[in-house]
């Protein structure tokens, strides 16, 4: 059917879509894209001005150290010093395309370009989600379930799966770091279906989203809440081995808990913070397609992600119940 290239290349010619068609296919792409972007939705969004290079600098004034003693009458104190933390975020281009032959366009039963746009939206969502997770996985603020202190330690933990008591400790960790809550008054946590199953089994603490939100207020992927944390589900989170050896190792599920402003996504100013759909008609490649046999559909985006408040982000590692 369609042949896909995994290498981003430049295709000659201009975007051949009319404004109406482009809007339709962008909307089709976004329908597959947006439901999966839990991490992107919670990120602080920043724009890199046009013609300003590829790197954005985040500058944060650190809190002042409070004086340990009172003033002495008539004596000028030493005073304090301002300190600034700088974090750099370098924007990169992401994208992919699919080649569609004139033959499949003519003989195919399904609306190929519409279906392709949906698949491109799904792929774009996974790429964006993966890049954000790669960035936030570098955080050193880690919580291991069951009282373990290392990933390998989960193997011998009495309770290997995440419990309501663990959630209380993670919330305490965020509170002690003065992490800001989101506008809904909660910290957020993205978990996979296995972790969600374990947490939902705590019937005394778990509150399902259907119990506290009206249908029009429900957020895609939102599952429920407990102990000051709201939970969102994703199937695109890594599962790793607890050790490099075969003996006693278990599967370790990764989750992320965070407060507002824990990490940021940077987009180019002339972008809309979402992938652009690009469609080329048969023959748009000129002499590279002398028989007008090939069209392409693709997406492109320029962005990056970076941790901006390390203590407001907790990587959670846990086993799960069978």
Report on this structure:
This protein has seven helices and 16 strands. It has 322 residues and is an alpha+beta fold. Strands 6, 7, 8, 9, 10, 11, 12 and 16 form an eight-stranded mixed sheet that branches. The two termini are 40 Å apart. The model is unreliable at 1-15 (pLDDT under 50).
Provide a quick synopsis of the model.
The protein has 322 residues and is of the alpha+beta class.
Summarize the biggest pleated sheet: 8 strands, mixed
Look at the helices and sheets and give the structural class: alpha+beta
* String of helices and strands: EHHEEEEHHEHEHEHEEEEEEEE
Rough shape? globular
Mean pLDDT: 83
Jot down its keywords.
six-stranded mixed beta sheet; eight-stranded mixed beta sheet; 7 helices; disordered N terminus; 322 residues; alpha+beta
Q: Secondary-structure map with pairings?
A:
Elements: E1 3-5, H1 19-33, H2 38-42, E2 44-48, E3 55-61, E4 84-90, E5 92-101, H3 102-107, H4 112-136, E6 142-144, H5 164-176, E7 187-191, H6 193-200, E8 207-208, H7 209-212, E9 222-226, E10 229-233, E11 239-241, E12 251-258, E13 263-268, E14 276-280, E15 294-307, E16 313-318
Parallel strand pairs: 2-13, 6-16, 7-10
Antiparallel strand pairs: 1-5, 3-4, 5-15, 7-12, 8-9, 9-10, 11-12, 12-16, 13-15, 14-15
Helix pairs in contact: 1-4
